[in-house]
Specification:
The protein is of the alpha/beta class and 279 residues long. It has a single domain, classed as Spore Coat Polysaccharide Biosynthesis Protein SpsA, Chain A. 32% of the residues lie in helices and 26% in strands. It is built from ten helices and 13 strands. The chain has a five-stranded mixed β-barrel. A two-stranded antiparallel ribbon has the order 2-3. A hairpin with a 2-residue loop joins strand 9 and strand 10. The longest helix is centred in the C-terminal third of the chain and has 16 residues. It is globular, with a radius of gyration of 19 Å. The chain starts with 5 loop residues before the first strand and ends with a helix. The model has no long low-confidence stretch (mean pLDDT 90).
Length: 279
């Protein structure tokens, strides 16, 4: 059994919901107070023990590469001053992880982005996937830790899910299956972005996964799905047909920071939680 230490961050998308900002700046660099979304996602992975960080980028995403690199002039400028403490978190990440990048040449969906990561992950390693615009907060174990607990128990792919209001169902991959423990479902089927009358449940997959390495072979052989993109849901569905996908109704809060409403809500939540202010 391979140790689970690798985490994939697909960050190549266009971020069209935040135009015009994302015309020149990655959506993953949107700030939540003083840290970008991608920083929070990486912190979650590292806390869960995933210290090999693999980024799937694209052109115009250099800001992410630069964020996880040294900035000699800035560091010298603030050395010995109070401002230096604000760089400590990112420096700790760089010092204690292995970071690699590969480009997704054509933006053809999440499944294609994950497939681009095969060269970084390898053929035989399970790995995590974090979508940074799904910002999650937890009082206890974070979402990736919750998924890893289930992976260690069941040794198969694990996806994070949450109950959705009807208006959101057509925007998600929706799962159904047998409840085998509190908040734990062995998935039997899933549908990508179904209409309400075709949705098998109200449980939608959010941006946290642990995937077994056979997902790469499945992604290499599936046809384009919804929006003419390679959908990770279609590959997971094939695993689910053999009982090899577990869904975790995760404990915690999630903000969809690809939407302006949730993005502002996330900023307010962090401001109140970390500063003690109520206004």
């Amino acid at each position: 059994m391979h140790t689970l230490t690798k985490c994939l961050f697909p960050v190549a998308g266009y971020g069209t919901r935040f135009l015009p900002f994302t015309k020149s700046m990655p959506k993953e660099m949107l700030p939540i107070i003083n840290k970008p979304l991608i920083h929070y996602g990486v912190e979650e992975a590292v806390v869960a023990g995933l210290n090999e960080l693999c980024f799937i980028t694209s052109r115009n995403k250099r800001a992410i590469d630069d964020y996880f690199d040294v900035h000699y002039e800035l560091e010298q400028q603030v050395a010995g001053r109070d401002q230096a403490r604000h760089l400590q978190d990112i420096q700790d990440i760089m010092d204690n992880t292995c970071i690699s990048f590969v480009r997704q040449r054509h933006i053809l969906g999440l499944g294609n982005a994950i497939l681009c990561g095969k060269t970084l992950i390898g053929d035989n390693c399970p790995f995590g996937v974090v979508l940074a615009d799904d910002l999650c907060f937890n009082e206890g174990k974070n979402v990736m830790q919750q998924l890893m607990d289930l992976y260690n128990q069941y040794q198969c792919s694990v996806v994070a899910v949450q109950e959705l209001s009807p208006e959101y169902i057509p925007n998600f991959g929706i799962v159904t299956g047998e409840t085998i423990a509190d908040g734990t479902i062995r998935v039997s089927d899933m549908v990508e972005k179904p209409s309400l009358d075709q949705a098998p449940s109200n449980l939608g997959i959010v941006g946290r996964y642990i995937l077994t390495p056979d997902i790469f072979t499945l992604l290499e052989n599936i046809s384009s799905g919804v929006n003419n993109e390679i959908q990770i849901t279609d590959a997971l569905r094939q695993q689910a047909m053999h009982g090899q996908v577990i869904a975790c109704v995760f404990k915690g809060l999630r903000f969809d920071c690809g939407s302006t409403k949730d993005y502002i809500a996330a900023i307010n939540y962090c401001y109140q939680k970390h500063s003690g202010h109520q206004n």
